[in-house]
Amino acid sequence: MGRVCKEAEDAAVAACNGIACNEFTNCNGIQCNSFTGCSWWNVPCHVARAACVAAMAIARAACWVARGVCVLAAEAVKAACMIAAAVARAACELVNFVLDIVAFVVELILSIPILGGIIRTIWNWVTEIAWRAFGLVDFFLSWAGIRFRKKMYFGVIVPSVDGVVIASDADIMNQVNAASTFYDTTCNINMIFSGICHTGVPPPEGGLTVSCDATGFFNDWWLPGSYFEFASATCKFTDGFRRVIGYGAEIIIFIVRNVTPDTGGSNTRGCSFSSTHNYVVVEAGPAVSNFMASHEMGHACWLPHDSGTNLMNGTVPFTNPTLSALQIATIRWSKHCVYI
Ligand SMILES: [Zn+2]
Q1: 255 alpha carbon to ligand 1 midpoint, in Å?
Q2: Distance from the CA of 337 to the center of ligand 1, in angstroms?
Q3: DSSP H stretches of helix in the chain
Q4: Residue 191: which CATH number?
Q5: Structural domain total, the chain
Q6: What does the alpha-carbon distance between residue 76 and residue 176 come to, in Å, rounded to a whole number?
Q7: pTM of the predicted model, to two decimals?
Q8: Which of 70, 152, 266, 275 is the most exposed place for a label (fewest CB within 10 A)?
Q9: Ligand 1: distance of its center to the CA of 318 in Å?
Q10: pLDDT of 243-277, one tens digit each?
């Protein structure tokens, strides 16, 4: 089901529900308030009073009729509005589904080792640069602090080894919740989570242990890259077309067992090759900062390493990370972060 189709229908239904008759609401207020103090002998006054009461009664009845017509008309318009929203949703879903089928076939081709991998790398950078060129004005607005609400889709894929998932949903949700809250409050981005998928695709060793260096980069052109692409195509079928065209492409967090290098006491816990992929990899567990996925998503949106309490510190903070205005603008400028 297309996510944008559902979001649009929800907004349309809310608008339809707002349709109501707000006129003729005070019919009972139509009363004759004149000639109320007639002396007993003042016959003309009593006649005028009776005429006034009768006239107001007629006016009141007319008001009730008008009210009834108004309410019926509003209900009819509301029903038509709901039907139109449902029809538009169905049409949207159909188009979305066809696009996702096409995207699925494209992703299967991109799953082919070497050839698919090279095309994928080039194409992902082409779409990123194209959408950034398109969103240049928005980048400067964001930098200046004018940040209208944008949205970003993200989801998690976790593999199993010998029938056992390599990370618990609880550990994964710590990463998910931290990213949702952090990007919402810091960048005014509505983070839309597409769920945790327990993929049945068996990972090769390179899909479980990822080298965050040139080895890892070129591994993506071989079997590990095929695994990431194929698991994405099957696990995250919905809106797969967005990953292909780039605009609003979902960022997929792949849970891995280990990210290397782990030298000199440094323990690498996550990796992103920037726009090369639509995925980042993270380890999930009690020893890992909850902001690890947020940090890798920052890399996916072009942020380099920073220092101090910054989210992009190479040693990811465990609490209250920060971002500069330029970093916020750079993330909001990414192809993953969109208005529609
Ligand atoms: Zn990093």
Answers
A1: 16
A2: 20
A3: 3-17, 43-110, 115-134, 136-143, 169-187, 214-219, 223-235, 240-245, 292-300, 325-332
A4: 3.40.390.10
A5: 2
A6: 43
A7: 0.84
A8: 266
A9: 14
A10: 999 999 999 999 999 898 887 655 889 999 998 99
- Give long-range contacts, CB 8 A cutoff, 24+ apart: 54-62: 56/30, 56/31, 56/32, 59/30, 60/27, 60/28, 60/30, 60/31
Q: Report the DSSP beta bridge partners of residue 161.
A: 164
Quote the CA–CA distance of 230 and 254 in Å, as a whole number: 12
Give the range of the structural domain holding residue 249, as residue numbers without chain letter.
111-338
The band of 124, judged by pLDDT with boundaries at 50, 70 and 90, is very high
Instruction: For residues 294 and 309, give the distance between their C-alpha atoms in angstroms, rounded to a whole number.
Output: 14
Q: Please say which residue of 97, 121, 139 terminates a domain.
A: 97
Say if residue 181 is in the same domain as residue 323: yes
What span, in angstroms and rounded, lies between the C-alpha atoms of 198 and 242? 21
Report CA(118)–ligand 1 centroid distance (Å): 24
What would the two tokens of residue 249 be? 């492409």
Question: How many whole angstroms from 182 Cα to the centroid of ligand 1?
Answer: 17
Is the Cβ–Cβ distance between 313 and 324 less than 8 Å? no
**Burial code of 229-244, b = ≥16 C-beta within 10 A, e = fewer?**
bbbbbbbbbbbbbbbb
